[in-house]
Amino acid sequence: MDQFVPVSELTEDQARKELARLALQLNDANTQYHTDDAPVISDAEYDALKRRNLAVETAFPNLKRADSPSDKIGGSVSESFSKITHTVRMLSLGNAFNDEDVTEFDTRIRKYLGIEISAKLDYTAEPKIDGLSLSLRYENGTLIHAVTRGDGEVGENVTNNARTIPNIPQQVKNAPAVMEIRGEVYMSHADFHTLNKRQEEKGGKLFANPRNAAAGSLRQLDANITASRPLEFFAYAWGELSEPLADTQSKAVARMADMGFSTNPLMQTCNGPKALIAHYKTIEEQRATLGYDIDGVVYKVDDLSLQNRLGFRSTTPRWAVAHKFPAEIAHTRLEAIEIQVGRTGALSPVARLTPVTVGGVVVSNATLHNEDYIVGRDSKGMPIREGRDIRVGDWVEVYRAGDVIPKIRDVDISKRADDSQPYVFPTICPDCGSPAIREDGDSVARCTGGLICPAQAVERLKHFVSRGAFDIEGLGNKQIEMFFDDENLLIKEPSDIFTLETRDTANFTKLKNREGWGDKSATNLFAAINEKRVIPLNKLIFALGIRHVGDTTGSLLAKNYQSWDAFAAAMDAAKDHEGEAWDTLNAIDGVGSVMATTLVDSFDAPETRAAIDRLVAHLDIHDVVQTDTSDSAVAGKIVVFTGTLERMTRAEAKDRAETLGAKVSGSVSKKTDIVVAGPGAGSKEKKAKELGVTLMTEDEWLALINETSG
């Protein structure tokens, strides 16, 4: 199957399907880990999936999904807590898995900054605590609030709970007027075992590992319960500051310690990748005796001015990386194989296992990928596991690479029962009975039921109300399932959500009188729905759940078309897959022919288009507000950089151009406005001359944008 094909050997179709599979698995894993505090996969496997996803996106940039896991941080915020928006986003970290990755990290840093390999470059290296991220805000030395990371932008208000953690200072001396200290809440091994023993004695819930115990304890609705749990806090970073703590990472952390925060004694300053790797090995050797869980070592550029220059990608800083520890494996029995049907109709086999602990987490199910993997072959028909198939009742080897989604690596044929039978993959959808067809080139079978398939319909509705889409308070997965099966208040398509209150008024049995509801909860739900009748264009496009169109692409399309009328008209005009509207859609950087086809075909499908029109009739869709670049000489212009830039890196040039309102393209066409050509420019410069496109040297470009910026 595709995930076993090297990225360099993937076809475009295989890559597209691989990215879809990875997005599904990674999104599920994020919810399980960050929101539910109940991960099903190990950190190691999660990292492996993210690494695979990034590698495929790098090789096929035109196929990057709008809902790409590469652009997401953490998980959704629980509705049980009030929300606080971070003044400075809480990002995640990129990962390194071997010595070569660490060397490449250092090389990237130096290349971006223009620092020679032989030059001194200091980093900090410290253990990566396996706990729950927390941000503490102090004003004039007093703790004001404590917030979980959440999705990186909005977190949960756990202030009362955090105040019960003994080593979190309530008052801080000699601190900036505004100071956000960030770190990790964790539980020691000894305290974890004591807690689980106490839970067992009183018949309470047993925790899978210290990380889950810490997260569950901090996110209690009753602060008294949190106070009874032995939590601790390590400080290692910061958010908003009214004045700098220091000029280096190491000095800033030392100042935190002086102010009374617990910092990790194993943090060390290292010059270059060799010293980083040496300290990594030192920490790894002590891992079993530390008394708390760590899953790697974090490296950060020490000089804060260099950190500032390096900046951030969409979800991670360029100046830091987490060097993860290797994965672990275990053996258990495969009790059953179940088929799950996703939003796009994909039939995904899931292994139900006799529970087993893998890498500190109890695993009871694992992905089986698709039919080929169960049979024992890859996407090209070549044997994997030496051709051994997987059957119900088998003893299997389970692994969690990078501590993520569990997978079955191999089968112990010697323990297979004599009456064992090969697994027969279904040819009909288990939810609607429609044929399940596997098309040529597709790694998965898909239900052909479409809108009549309840599994697909429910998943699409869940997507519609999800956080990145309409994010309707009080209408989550559980409520969607309830309304979908309700005879009186059916929600079968998105427009039904916005007629719910009217239909409830006409019903004899009111929502407020039903089990689990009341007058207040029903009123709040209707108010939340009405509030979402006003929606930004990008969120609506994403919420439609069109295959390959995620939140990033939703924003991209919204930015290009600016209004719903213009967007819908363009999709209609492109329905024949030709003409100016079709060419314009395909020319948008990040769309590509596959996504364009899915978009226009969805709008051209009568049933789907009718459902979209019924929805739009209930909405007030806000047009995109363009950033004011009226003073910019390059706003709206399409710019191509080619050749070698000598005064700034390509990444810096692209960021600067886009900030000034320009669109940076990778190819030259008749629509290109400016080509900035450095030494070594080849075919792009030649094509620019042929098309009469304005050519500039790097100095001329810098003069233009310097004039632009004032």
Question: Would you mind describing this structure in some detail?
Answer:
Helix 1 packs antiparallel against helix 2 (43-59), helix 3 (99-113) packs antiparallel against helix 9 (272-286) and helix 17 packs across helix 18. With 710 residues, this protein is an alpha+beta fold. The chain folds into 5 domains: 2-72 and 328-415, Nucleic acid-binding proteins (OB fold (Dihydrolipoamide Acetyltransferase, E2P), Beta Barrel), CATH 2.40.50.140; 122-324, DNA ligase/mRNA capping enzyme (D-amino Acid Aminotransferase, Chain A, domain 1, 2-Layer Sandwich), CATH 3.30.470.30; 452-532, Orthogonal Bundle (DNA polymerase, domain 1), CATH 1.10.150; 536-622, Orthogonal Bundle (DNA polymerase, domain 1); 638-708, BRCT domain (Rossmann fold), CATH 3.40.50.10190. The strands form 7 sheets. The protein has a 5-stranded mixed sheet, sandwiched between helices. Strands 14-13-12-15-16 form a 5-stranded antiparallel sheet, with no helix packed on it. The chain has a 4-stranded antiparallel sheet with strand order 5-4-7-8.
